[in-house]
Amino acid sequence: MRNVLLGAPVADIDIATQLTPEVVGRAARAAGLAVHPTGIEHGTLTLVADGQPFEVTTLRRDVATDGRRATVTFTQDWAEDARRRDFRINALYAAPDGEVFDPTGGGLDDVRARRVVFVGDPETRLREDYLRILRFFRFNAWYSADAPDAAGLAACARLRDGLAGISAERIWAETRRLLGAVRPMRALRAMDGAGVLRRLFPEAEGLERLERLTALELVQGWPVDPMVRFAALFARDPEIMAGLARRLRMSGAERDRLVFAARDQTDLSQAMSPRAIRRALYLAGLQVVLDRVMLATADDDHAGGWEAWLREARDWSRPAMPVSGDDLMAAGLTGGPEMGAALRRLEAAWIESDFQLGRGALLALTRA
């Protein structure tokens, strides 16, 4: 409902109901829908219609909370369900005919003002789930038109140590979503001022490089990339990046991007020729080079001589080595170390030729 009223893209449709999960499940199966108990302990079933998933959650109220999870019981009261939600813009409901209901009495006003305000007392909402501290800054980055709500911001600052009990996976998921906002800097500056950024990431060097990067994204038309933005917060040190990836339990692909963006395994400079750029792209890979060039551009505070790099990189397609191990075996080489060494020599010669040597020329080198 929130995104519809804000004119923002709608990624999914969540359905609330007074029916219990058991009744919902029976009705859905009778209608031929697939039913998955994705959050049954909190009253949520995922129903699949024509390949499209819909989360259906029974109205509920909290019985007990510990700052990470809640024990709930079901209710028939829409206002009671709304009171347990985090922000007033997330406590809006719409009937099938489109009529909107605002049980907190402030959600529609918040939509009109584009602001993020906690339901009721901010500290109470945060003590129920400390991840709401990060959600406060994420929702401000995505939806707020002004500085964060003062009462909510002060509560986040006071209770920031509660984030220590939140799982690394949840911290990283929220951080990544926050960094995916087109203009996240106002929220991030507030997060930094409240001590939350330093509480989560004591290795962070500050927001200056990230500020320059986000400004360049708008000027240059670069895509929003949360991974590059995250890397911009830290020193270009592979050990720091690897440590962050371990602590946040990132995927292997995410870890590699951070580490390779910091590692100087292929020297890059603005003065490199197109031929040298292509060599670096082949050796390091397109994503690594793009990440490093964008970070280097942010360091320089202007696009400058990196413009040619970015043009070359975006137009580049990785060429395929024209000679394989099968070709060398057909030419009389045996397998094992001899084969590997020969392939490495041929690949080096092929790269040195700016990828111009063809299969015949390379095979001739093996006979030379």
Topology of helices and strands:
Blueprint: H1 2-6, E1 14-17, H2 21-30, E2 34-39, E3 44-49, E4 52-58, E5 60-65, E6 70-74, H3 78-83, E7 93-94, E8 100-101, H4 107-113, H5 122-128, H6 132-143, H7 150-158, H8 168-179, H9 185-193, H10 196-200, H11 208-220, H12 226-231, H13 238-247, H14 252-262, H15 274-284, H16 286-300, H17 306-314, H18 325-330, H19 337-352, H20 359-367
Parallel strand pairs: 1-4
Antiparallel strand pairs: 2-3, 3-4, 5-6, 7-8
Explain what the structure shows:
- The protein has a domain at about 325-365.
- The chain is built from 20 helices and eight strands.
- The protein has helices at about 1-5, 20-30, 80-85, 105-115, 120-130, 130-145, 150-160, 170-180, 185-195, 195-200, 210-220, 225-230, 240-245, 250-260, 275-285, 285-300, 305-315, 325-330, 335-350, 360-365; strands at about 15, 35-40, 45-50, 50-60, 60-65, 70-75, 95, 100.
- The strands form three sheets. The protein has a four-stranded mixed beta sheet, with helices on one face.
- The N and C termini lie far apart (about 70 Å).
